[in-house]
Structure formats: C-alpha cells, structure tokens
C-alpha cells in the first residue's frame, strides 16, 4: 500500500541518528515535510541538507520544556501546523540495577518517559489550538521497545520507561480521543545502530543474535511502513494501540 504524507508536517524527536534519522528520510520520501529535532544540531542540519527543502533542523532537548516549546515554534514558523509527532528520543544506561548510579537512572527516566510526555503534550496542545477536533488529523507515535514486556539483566530502568510509554500511549489516546488526535506506540525489536553496534560485534552480542529465532537483527527500515501508516489519513480509526515489530524476537 502506497502511503502519502503530502501536505502533512511531522516533527521527529531524536532525529540525529539511527531509526530517527531513518524515519525522517521515510517521511520526506512519502511526500511529507519533516522537522528534525535533536540536541546534536550539526547532525540534523546535515540530514536536512541531504533531504532538501522538505526538511528543517531544530534544536531540541526533550528533557527541557522550554526547548520543546521553542522547537514547535520554529516548526510552525517554517511549515505551519505540525500534524504528526514522533517521540523517538531515548537513551539507556547499562548495568545491574544494584550498580547503576542514581544520576544515570534519572537521565534515562527524564529522556525516555518524561521527554516523550513533554513532546507529545506540546504537539497535542498545538494541534488542538489549530482545530484538530474538527479535522481529525492529529497523529502521535511513541517509540517504545520489546523490552517493555521482556525480563533481562542490565536494562531495568530502560525497560521500565518503555513499559511506561506503552501505557502512556493508551492514557493519552483516551484523553485526546475527542480532540482529533490519535496516539499509538511502536515497539521495535533489536535494530543495529551506533548505540549498540559495539555490543552486537562482541562475542556476547553475536551470541545474543544467534539465540534469536531467526538469528538476525531487524533491518534498519523495518518500522518505516507502520510508522508512515500511523502518521497518515489511512490510520484515522486507529488509536490507543501498541504494535510490536520485532521479526519474532520476543516470541
């Protein structure tokens, strides 16, 4: 199915690398305008230049409400209403729960859960002010993880924040259901990225891959079709859902 985002603007938080950068490319390829938000402005600016006129790079620290508001101000000044919000910014602090410093835990919590909340909330406020209730064109997609329903060692806070995101998505969907804003959550499996590349290249990382049912990681663009669908008019009647895309890794 061909998905068109022509006439729509989407803000992607965490767009400087990995699947966030891939999302931005996919949105632009589908005809949409895309706002690239991240702290690493040099990277998003380079990506915006690669994509061309349908992309705008903005500074965005999702843990700072003022930064979130400024990012939406810049997006609206350049493109007008932001119809889609992709809350993708996230970090992890590895280590056993008895060893990880409180500062590291707080950063994971603030980035993954609070940051996604702030981005989604600001986007919803702008959509409501722009008349989303009448148009029904608001789309929020939270990026979770299969760790939300897995048990492991070394990522307790990360997994807890991703489980929280899944429930946050349902809560916000219920709250905004009459405001023309759909909220859904994507839970990807293991995807190669610059964050985990060293691990999966290690002996233990290769053993982890060998232990997966299909003995492979997800392709970097595996989430793109579902993301584009959830951002489009085609998903008008889909809200409050959680979609796991992991090539069967969590089975």
UniProtKB/TrEMBL annotation:
SUPFAM superfamilies (UniProt xref): NAD(P)-binding Rossmann-fold domains (SSF51735)
Q: What is the similarity comment for this entry?
A: Belongs to the short-chain dehydrogenases/reductases (SDR) family.
CDD domains the UniProt entry points to: SDR_c
Q: Which GO terms describe its molecular function?
A: oxidoreductase activity
| Source organism | Novosphingobium soli
Task: Quote the Pfam families the UniProt record gives.
Answer: adh_short_C2
| Name the record gives this protein | SDR family NAD(P)-dependent oxidoreductase
Keyword terms: Oxidoreductase
Return the broad EC class: oxidoreductase
Q: What is its EC number?
A: 1.1.1.-
Q: Output the InterPro entries linked to this UniProt entry.
A: NAD(P)-bd_dom_sf, Sc_DH/Rdtase_CS, SDR_fam
């Amino acid at each position: 199915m061909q998905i068109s985002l022509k006439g729509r603007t989407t803000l992607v938080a965490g767009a400087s690398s990995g699947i966030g950068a891939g999302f931005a490319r996919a949105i632009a390829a589908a005809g949409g305008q895309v706002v690239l938000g991240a702290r690493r402005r040099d990277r998003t600016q380079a990506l915006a230049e690669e994509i061309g006129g349908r992309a705008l790079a903005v500074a965005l620290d999702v843990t700072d409400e003022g930064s979130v508001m400024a990012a939406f101000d810049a997006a609206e000044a350049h493109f007008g209403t932001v119809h889609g919000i992709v809350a993708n910014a996230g970090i992890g602090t590895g280590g056993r729960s008895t060893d990880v410093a409180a500062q590291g835990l707080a950063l994971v919590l603030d980035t993954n859960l609070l940051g996604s909340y702030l981005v989604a909330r600001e986007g919803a406020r702008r959509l409501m002010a722009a008349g989303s209730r009448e148009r029904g064109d608001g789309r929020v997609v939270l990026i979770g993880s299969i760790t939300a329903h897995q048990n492991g060692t070394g990522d307790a806070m990360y997994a807890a924040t991703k489980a929280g995101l899944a429930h946050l998505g349902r809560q916000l969907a219920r709250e905004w259901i009459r405001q023309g804003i759909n909220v859904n959550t994507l839970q990807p499996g293991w995807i190669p990225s610059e964050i985990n590349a060293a691990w999966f290249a290690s002996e233990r990382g290769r053993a982890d891959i060998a232990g997966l049912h299909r003995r492979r990681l997800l392709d970097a663009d595996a989430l793109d079709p579902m993301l584009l669908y959830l951002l489009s008019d085609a998903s008008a009647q889909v809200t409050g859902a959680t979609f796991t895309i992991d090539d069967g890794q969590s089975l």
